[in-house]
Amino acid sequence: MEIHQLTPFLSVSPQITAADVGVAASRGFKAIICNRPDKESQDQPGMEEIREAAKRHGLDWHYQPVVSGQITDADVARFTELMNQLKGPVLAFCRTGTRCSTLWALSEAPRLDVDAILKTTAAAGYDLSAQRERIEQLAANTQPAEKGARVAAKRHDVLIIGGGAAGQAVTGSLLKRRPDLDIAIIEPRQEHYYQPGWTLVGGGVFERKQTVRPMSEVMPKQVKWYQAAASSFLPEQQQVVLEDGEHLGYRILIVAPGLTLDWDAIPGLRETLGRNGVTSNYRFDLAPYTWELVQSTRKGKALFTQPPMPIKCAGAPQKAMYLACDQWLRSGVIKDLDIEFCTAGAALFGVADYVPALMEYVERYGINLAFQHTLIAVDGDKRLARFKVTRADGEVEEVEKSFDMLHVCPPQRAPRFISSSPLADDAGWVELNPETLQHSRYGDIFGLGDAGNTPNAKTAAAVRKQAPVVAENVLMALDGKPPRAIYDGYGSCPLTVERGKIVLAEFGYGGKLLPSFPNWLVEGTRPSRFSWLLKEKMLPWIYWNAMLKGKEWLAEPEILRHRPAEHEASAACDFADKK
Hints:
It is a single chain. This protein is of the alpha/beta class. The strands form eight sheets. Strands 6, 7, 10, 11, 12, 13 and 24 form a seven-stranded mixed sheet that branches. Strands 1-2-5-3-4 form a five-stranded mixed sheet, sandwiched between helices. Strands 15-22-16-17-18 form a five-stranded parallel sheet, covered by helices on one side. The longest helix is centred in the last third of the chain and has 19 residues, at 460-478. The chain is globular and about 75 Å long.
């Protein structure tokens, strides 16, 4: 548990769990304040569970949520009131502790010197220098400056939102081309995950520890790392606002925050994840439980679900099922299992060329296919799953299915700070040109990865091809030229149909097959042992040591030689206006 003391009365912390409440009680805390809105992100523990833990340990519980990057005077007044009411010591928490520290700093403005306040928060690990002006205004008992144009204290040539696969890959590609480029990355997480490996963790092939590294080891030393969350965008001012209210300026912005797994969209799901036979390879902490269930489930009913598109790695729900079935087949228990694939889609896979090979395994394992079945609720204690089913005649009904094991792929959406921003399309995704990956309305903004609205498969393989395209086009934009590097929609989905064989699906926009290897080496529409070796042995190494480092093996971008003159003039003027 990470605790930072501001004063003998108040300490702050990043997000805590119910288990951490007992630790806080043992350290003498008398009250807990939560400054983070419930359900702010998909990896956030449920607030009710933490509140109940506080009650059990005899700690006062207070819920005062504040919106990241938008702390109001009313928020400060309420926090001050709480501080005056409570008996300490008090522990306040939010996502990183920044909001709690900011509330304290602003509440102390009338009493403490601004330098003393900022020195205290800095000593606790929170640089709130961006709040100096507001603290001084509050100290002088004046109203804060009216919302409007503001000059960012810090500005970078390239500002990247997200330190995941997309953010790190495009950083590597940029530094490969221009090593002295001024780049900054906004990323609050302390860990970096190799998410494609979680399927193999759930299949008993990888250990979970093989799929994670400290973010500090992945982050390039040449870049400035802001260990905070982005809160909002001011594209007309070329600024991003962080959760502590700091404004960062940019010449070019690259948006790569990934997507949100919406566990709460299915009532009852979050409460039963990790128990009652309910699991998902889409979470780092649950993939090992998938393998435990596969080993322990020897009879009964096993359900595997897939929600409506878009989702990242559209083959992952099937991969979990095939690896489980292979284990059940090898252990001789598959005859005692009723296995069902419940997908919201109307087909087994979106690219028809790969369906025949997959159907061979569906028949081998005796899997029942339930098309147009959307999971809408889970009762873990009763082991019941409810589905919305669309029949062939268009009629919709709800059905319940019992289960002994349930593997869930959750619904997925863009992060809230994206979907509510000026950058979003009507569906909430970053609005991008599908070829150049430049924003459709802001010429100084580019995007890649899962948060974009481009109609490609949301996979790490897509990012591997997108990163060089964005890097080329960003440098062209910085040099006052129109973007000419082109992304063809490439995505790859290594479908693990059994332990030791994979159907390597590679395709681009419109389902066009885009194989990376000659047919004599890999027949992409058929299961292959080489593809398994590629997935198990080669791709993890390529990810950590090549893709994130700007080594673009089999990923060199196509750059058009000429573009229509009127298009070039329009793009150049669009960027020039922003400069």
